[in-house]
Structures are given as structure tokens and as C-alpha cells.
Write a structure and sequence with these properties.
By secondary structure, the protein is mostly helical. It has a domain at about 55-155 and about 185-203: LemA-like domain (de novo design (two linked rop proteins)), CATH 1.20.1440. Helix content is about 80%, strand content about 0%. The longest helix is centred in the first third of the chain and has 39 residues, at about 30-70. The termini are far apart.
């Protein structure tokens, strides 16, 4: 009888250890890290998708403006170059953990926002351009995309805040040190101000 009990205890001990380990990981916030890390990656992907959507509109917008205002060469070149720089930066989930890469991405997107604002401002001087249906459609799509960017960026900011709070809270901060989880970069106040204003045009 004693042998049977010992045999049963021996058979169950690995399972019991696994169960205890799972409970320990759950209690120390490990599962929260997994969930929130995936949440920040998903939110980041949406930000990138919306910026790409904006970049995709630029060539048609530039060509349309060029048809009516070819003399605005500096502005047109500025937009084209800003788009080229913004799309040349490779953005992956790993970018979130690289402050320098994240800053470069922010700066490039801010420069494109500024270039687009100058392009739209130039259009005010060309009544025929402002009345062009293609230009109006592109402008509408651009404004819609800027709104989507704002929403996606705000969701990402909140997601990162939640994640970073989890990283710093006790006892989660102990788990973070053990598994190498670090606070993620977020949009800076200066950059947030520069890219949160969508280009507008008055008809």
C-alpha cells in the first residue's frame, strides 16, 4: 500500500510542479506581459498601416498639383523627398525597443506632415487646382487618413502606457528584470504636437 502511494506521488510530482510554475508565472505578471506586449505590437502595426496609407496618396497628390502648379518646384520636390525618407525607414515590432530608430521614424513622419501642409497651403493660390475634382478627392482621402493616424497613434500611446506601467509595478518589475522586459518608447510631446495637426484646406 505504501509503495502504491509512493508510486502515485512520484507520478504526479512533475505535473504538480508544472501547475505550480504556471500559477507562479501568472501571479507574477508574466501572462500580463505577453498580452500587453502583443497589444502594443498590434497597435503599432495599425499606426504603420495608416502612415503607409498616407504615403500611398502622395504621388497622385503631387502629380495633380504639378498639373496646375508646376512652378512650385521646391514644394513638390520637398514632398517627394519627405515621402521617400519616411518610406525608407524599416519599421518592425523591434523598432519599439530601439529609441534611436523610433526617433528617426517620428522625425521622418513629422517632416512628411510638414511638407504636405506646405503643399496644401500652395494650392490656395491656384483656384483651378482647388476646383479640380481629383484634387478634392485626394484631399478628402488625405484628411480621412490623417484622422485615422490620430486615432491609431492615440491607441498606441495608451497601449504603451499600460505596458510600461506593468513593467514598473511591483512585483511585475521583478518579472520584467528576469525576462528582460523593458519600457517601450512612446511618441514624444514635441513630435506629437508636430504630427497631430492634419493638413487642411479651405474651399
Amino acid at each position: 500500500m505504501i509503495r502504491l502511494l509512493r508510486s502515485s506521488s512520484s507520478a504526479w510530482s512533475p505535473r504538480l510542479l508544472v501547475a505550480l510554475a504556471c500559477c507562479a508565472l501568472s501571479a507574477c505578471g508574466y501572462n500580463d506581459f505577453q498580452s500587453k506586449d502583443e497589444g502594443t505590437k498590434a497597435a503599432w502595426s495599425e499606426v504603420v498601416n495608416q502612415y503607409q496609407r498616407r504615403a500611398d496618396l502622395v504621388p497622385n497628390l503631387v502629380n495633380t498639383v504639378k498639373g496646375y502648379a508646376a512652378q512650385e518646384k521646391d514644394v513638390l520636390i520637398g514632398v517627394t523627398e519627405a515621402r521617400s525618407k519616411a518610406t525608407s525607414i524599416q519599421v518592425t515590432p523591434e523598432t519599439l525597443n530601439d529609441p534611436a530608430a523610433f526617433k528617426r521614424f517620428q522625425e521622418a513622419q513629422g517632416q512628411l506632415t510638414g511638407a504636405l501642409s506646405r503643399l496644401i497651403a500652395v494650392s490656395e493660390n491656384y483656384p483651378q487646382l482647388k476646383s479640380d475634382q481629383n484634387f478634392r478627392d485626394l484631399q478628402s482621402q488625405l484628411e480621412g487618413t490623417e484622422n485615422r493616424i490620430t486615432v491609431a497613434r492615440n491607441r498606441y500611446i495608451q497601449s504603451v502606457r499600460d505596458y510600461n506601467v506593468t513593467v514598473r509595478q511591483f512585483p511585475n518589475n521583478l518579472t520584467a528584470k528576469v525576462f528582460g522586459y523593458q519600457a517601450k518608447e512612446n511618441f514624444t510631446v514635441e513630435n506629437e504636437k508636430s504630427i497631430s495637426t492634419a493638413p487642411t484646406v479651405k474651399f
